[in-house]
Amino acid sequence: MKKVINTPYIKRVKKPWGYEIHFTQDDLPYMGKILHINAGKRVSLQIHDKKMESWYKLSGKVIMILGDKEGNLFEQEMEEGVGYTTTINQKHRLKALEDSDILEVSTPEIGTTFRLEDDYA
Q1: Which listed site, 47, 65, 92, 107, has its alpha carbon 20 to 30 Å from 119?
Q2: What is the tally of helices (H) and strands (E) in the chain?
Q3: Residues of the chain under the 70 pLDDT cut
Q4: CA–CA separation, 48 vs 88, rounded Å?
């Protein structure tokens, strides 16, 4: 029988747009975090060459900016009770219209993140 990992773990990471709460340990084969994005702020427009992310809005009002297969950007508001997944090399960005919390699960922090636009660089 496999042992359950039950070591309490939490890490808060300050970001210029708010903060992240990591609730999974770094050595696991996946990452779990809560993104808190302050009203009027947005994360970088980015792509990942090896990482996929899935999001679920916990609170607030959030706009996703996503790239289609041709790389054109479109906006879509996150709905209540719906999950969203970005694919490898898909452009993506989150923008909060009010203080917002998003649950994010993903592959581990692997590969390279390319920041195409960053409001805080």
Answers
A1: 107
A2: 0, 11
A3: 1-7
A4: 6
